[in-house]
Fold each of these.
Amino acid sequence: MSATAEPSESQPSHNSKSFPFFDLPPELRSRILSFLLCTDTRTIDLDPSNYRVATARLNLFLVSKQFGFEAYHVFYAGHTFRIFQTHGRFLGKRTEPLLARLPSYYRNIMVSLELRLGPGWSDPPKPWYVSDRLGLEDCIAVRTLRVFVEVDPSSPIFKGFRLNRDFFTNFSGMLLQQVMVRLPVLDTVEFDAYPSVDRHGALITRLLEETRKARKRIAWGPERDWGDSMADKLEKARLKAKQMSARVIDLEPVN
């Protein structure tokens, strides 16, 4: 009996043809690449978990020149990129923000950036300043800037812990102003916050003032749903309840 095993029908043939991926329509290729490349969070920042979350995806850039070209367009257009890092490991004075580490042709493709305010409210991180190193002028496709507020130190509960009531409000307002002026085609600033942040507090009020001065459109994010009136919210709740009721009916067994 021969020591060499016969190949079974289930074993793939070495002569099998590769899938003609580039024969697919561009829209379908982009859709497939988005499933492969886009993360669940859709927000990219300097983070210790990046090697697990992003490395395998970025390796797809190396498949071929054409595949890499299409892949990096999908990846950088399909995520929101945080302007200033928020993870404690990357807040050192010499740690450059993510945007400053990327080549300009990647920044050219981005369509959405995030400015997250709250970390270091009593002593803002040293890398949190706007300069040419960020390459914001290269972000020629960014039309939406997302501003997420974690805390508002002007609130009375921070009395005794803050430097003064207006320190972080003024810092944040100036930071937003400097970011907006450098983004060449920015159209919309979308605001959102954690539940503890008051929409009518000093910080949000100052950020809205800066946005109006810059003549940018104001939008509201999904976390707080600030943009809807009470009537709109009640109507959304009614429609959601109706949808849930329909699902229950669909799931009932047929006699």
Amino acid sequence: MADAGLPTGWEVRHSNSKNLPYFFNASSKESRWEPPEGTDMDSLKEYMAQNTRKPEGKIRAAHLLVKHKDSRRPSSWKEQNITRTKEEAIEILKGHEARIRSGEVSLGDLAQTESDCSSAKKHGDLGPFGKGEMQREFEEVAFALEPGQVSNVVETASGVHLIQRLE
């Protein structure tokens, strides 16, 4: 699909189970969540904006989660037993926030390596969600953001988050 900015043989498909787009190469049968090497990212973003529709009443957001010892589940894909305090988690997250706001790195790129949520492998993308589907504190902030905007530190039972509204 040349108009999607993808290399020859690649196309955008939609996962019904995750309700997210993915990339598929019909000749090699390879599928992946990340755009393949050689993708024109500007063309892909434009294509996705024109060819995906948001479910009614839902928004899409990404986040970077830092858990602490008092989190609901103090373990993650990157750390079996999280022992940091809430204050330490907030300081870590504030450091990430400074890097994001300075333009040094995007929230999505940083979430891949630093988030304690399994959404890290999808750049922190939580997919579309509506009211009543997330923890109240998270939801209130996410719905108040404009697309592209990044929140300040948000505390929930899961830990502390930075949230970026995607759409």
Amino acid sequence: MACQVLPIKMLRRAFGKVINSTFSTLLPDAAPVPEGLVTSLLHRFSSDEGYRLYDDVLPFFKQLHDWRKTSPATRSDSYQLQVGIISNSDDRIPTILDELGLRLNGRRYGSDLVQSTTHSDIDWVVMSYDVGIEKPDHGIFDAAKNMSALSAEGENVYLHVGDSIEEDYHGALKAGWQGVLLDRESKFKDDIPKAARVENLTDLLPRLMESKKS
């Protein structure tokens, strides 16, 4: 699914129009929207003020961090793991994730910036704002695969985890990836195979390790 990529000033202006049109219907006698409201809301939803992490997110990244610290020589598997974000969103995402306590290394689709992945929770970010295509279109998954820059040698596994059955789960499968549905409210337990569904992010890594052994 293609999306229109707007310059950042136009994007802010578009958000401003949405905010004005929303609140103007709630004010009596066509009174103007209070000055500063647009700026205040844009700031709120461009930072961690407007969001909160689910309780399983930081423990999950702690799991990943601890696993990555383990020397490959002491592990029974041969995983070389990268973690990325694929999001139908604009360029606020890296700042919001950073303010919520997740460590990004700075790699972003469309940017030439390359930094060390040491001590990072997230190795790269791919946003529809930069790609011009949204999930479930396979193009954004292809962009993410290119960002991973994995060696062509051996067997690479591309796995996408998300909470939208269409955009994330089916989108990943159609793009040739493995898909896991994050089903925190158990809405799809009768529709998705057990092996492709988790209700808590902290269940994901142990399951991947088990599948690697089998």
